[in-house]
Amino acid sequence: MMAYIVRRTLYAIPILIGVNLLTFLLFFVVNSPDDMARMHLGAKRVTDQAIEQWKVERGYDKPLVFNLEAEGLGQVTDTIFFDKSLRLFAFDFGQSDSGRNIGHDIGQRMWPSLAIAIPIMLVGLLVNITFSLLLAFFRGTYLDFWGVVLCVAMMSISGLFYIIGGQVLLGKLLNLFPISGYDIGAHAWKFLVLPVIIGVVSSIGSGSRWYRTLFLEEINKDFVRSARAKGLSEQRVLIGHVLRNALIPILTGVVVVLPTLFMGSLLLESFFGVPGLGSYTIDAINRQDFAIVRAMVFLGAVLYILGLLLTDISYTIADPRVRLE
What we know:
The chain has 325 residues and is an all-alpha fold. The protein has 16 helices and no strands.
């Protein structure tokens, strides 16, 4: 088991290095520090002195990869690549272009993101699996047919419709929840209920239809027929055999959600005014704060790779044959 985990971890290292190098090329080679200065200053005619001052204040005036003017290790460490890229591996995100500590902001903002993302993932998973098992139980009936029609209809609706519609119906007309805002402590729940409801409802269409397909594929296999021949009820067959053997593809779908636990939802947090990492990223893009965008891209890659690693480990628990392969 340990050898399997170590092997999977080693596979992730080249991927993370590649993401870091690609990010560096996009931000500092394709888009040079001079270009960033002009976009940030937002002036059509900006002087060379203003550009140089902007670069000096943010450490963008150094050589990209190799500093010939420095001595010893300074030739490598006194560069943009070391300051802005290599330090990310130590989770040293540095300062934003506006002068704030990015690591501190991430530490503060990840909790609102978690408060929204974890309930959406857990409740959504429970609702989708339950609804899918219900459709599989009544397969071939009118309930199954109209359930699939409902799923396709919900898949076809934009996520913005659920957000705006939920705000208007539940927030403005019925006045059940605040439309936007956030609070800390015991009063935070009332600002989180509406985003969680919208996040769960918007995922029912695609999630339930996919899980239904997985369950119907397992239902037609020989081990399910054998279970029925032994006299097991259909409910026990669905839960004890069909659901259990569909765990691996279900775990694969969960890994897509794992990065959002910390990264947050860009749309939900922006529309509901939640100070999470999703709105943090959107605000940085709008302000052209390139340091924050680089940090969030790297953090998202780390979380996604970590999710893949956790999924591989969970595979061995759900099906020990994966470890042997």
